[in-house]
Amino acid sequence: MNGGRAEDASERKAVIQTTHTHRGFTAPSVFPQNPNNEEFASTYFDQRVCVPEDDSKKCFSFRKLWAFTGPGFLMSIAYLDPGNIESDLQSGAKAGFKLLWVLLGATIIGLLLQRLAARLGVVTGMHLAEVCHRQYRTVRGSQLSCVQVPRIILWLMVELAIIGSDMQEVIGCAIAFNLLSSGRIPLWGGVLITIIDTFVFLFLDKYGLRKLEAFFGLLISIMAITFGYEYVTVRPDQGELLKGMFVPYCEDCGSTQLVQAVGIVGAVIMPHNIYLHSALVKSREVDRSNKKEVKEANKYFFIESTVALFISFLINVFVVAVFAEAFYKSTNMEVYNVCNQTGSPHSHLFPQNNETLEVDIYKGGVVLGCFFGPAALYIWAIGILAAGQSSTMTGTYSGQFVMEGFLNLRWSRFARVLLTRSIAIIPTLLVAIFQDVHRLTGMNDFLNVLQSMQLPFALIPILTFTSLPSLMSDFANGLVILVVCAINMYFVVNYVSSLHSVGLYVLAAFFSITYLTFVGYLVCEEKNQLDKKLQNNSEYIKECKKQHYRKKHCTENKSNIYSIKATGDDIFYQIYP
């Protein structure tokens, strides 16, 4: 009996790399250790990119920046997926240039969150899903532990977000194939093509990680060129564009524009992307025992992420500006007349009434073709195809990292890819078979709601690990979580109320209570567990000070001791040399 307790206690020991001792006193640990002392299953990136050494004292090196370039651009693709493109074009068509400042603000917030995600991966050597797995440990035995339940629920919530995003991405590719083939390739046929070519492209990393990153860079370049072409063709009003971008005001805006603003935030800040970025940074060789190298890696990853998200922001602005300039306040009748005059076979998509034009990715391409010629339609479709294909691939990586991290899988590479692909592809294929290509807007709205609802399940872990009040008195994440939950509740209530169903009202109320309860539990549970560990570390530091009679000896890099250091916006878990 006692032996079992001792064994259970030993299983709850934790390490970052190793547990250091000093004069017989063992440093307390933070993350639970694998009982078999096995490394977590590596995901995809078997090779590491070496960072060149630079003996000079220059504060910046382009050679080093180039070595760290890659993960940020893969991460930025989530800001350019078909869901974002649809949000952009709807924003332009419904609000003109008035919501560009929301897009700018959401991108900046996204950059700050990606910075935290990258730092978590660099400093701990684990991505966010692995940290969550070690935070919510499973106790041996046949019964499901109370600690295991929230971990499984958290995994399911993130998995739902990935599935919802993947459905939009695959459907975006299918729509692009349909437009490029003038309707000859049906939606389900485009889904099957996307499944096959995604598997092919995913194995490009067999030829080297840098070649894979270059391929993603090519897809981003295609998006920049195609959507940039549309921007130059339409020639938006630059004064109105700058006003909408830097003046945080929406004149004569109602609930439609407010819901669209919420949709922009939900489309830009995607939960699975935080998990993805924290894993991608592990592909660089960084000596985590060297404080200088860790700081340097954090700096260059942040610079790279800033450049990547700036490019993605410009591409999003291109799309918003095109539809704001050409189609803001346009009516269905106006578009119908133009399409009819140009002989477009798609004029039947627009009802002959004076209601405001409703556009999605498919109708957006059709409208561009009617107003600016067939070239605009086909170039638009190529851009959507590049967006869908690239985001589908990164979505697969996200699913891989999340599933391996939360469940600690040790499967063969092909089996893992097949499972993670099937989870998202099967519902997408069913939707494509039974849903008409012209009626996808409602489903995309639902998927945007779904992804927005899952956002706290990425924000809570990353913000909890990096902004505990006990560590950083100047930063508190409680308000951030409250705002995110309030936005999500508004989005759900607004969406459900439009369906006019009493049963759905009751279901939404029940779901909202359950949702907020689980969110609150995650915050309280993580705070309580980390506070206990921080208290243990504090006791260790006190004991160390008693032995050495030096106030800073235990936390400065003169001693070989485990320490926790709070620095402004995140937590460093480090072994000082």
Low-pLDDT ranges: 1-43, 139-145, 468-479, 548-553, 555-577
Strand content: under 5%
3D shape: globular
CATH class: Mainly Alpha
Helix fraction bin: 55-70%
Supply the CATH superfamily name: Amino acid/polyamine transporter I
Distance between the termini: 40 Å
Largest sheet: 2 strands, antiparallel
Order of secondary-structure elements:
HEEHHHHHHHHHHHHHHHHHHHHEE
Q: What's the total count of β strands?
A: 4
Rounded to the nearest angstrom, the radius of gyration is 25 Å
Q: Strand order, main sheet: write it out.
A: 1-2
Average pLDDT = 73
Tell me the structural class.
Answer: mainly alpha
CATH topology: Amino acid/polyamine transporter I
Count of discrete alpha- or pi-helical segments spanning 4 or more residues: 21
Q: Could you say what the CATH architecture is? A: Up-down Bundle
- Count of discrete structural domains: 1
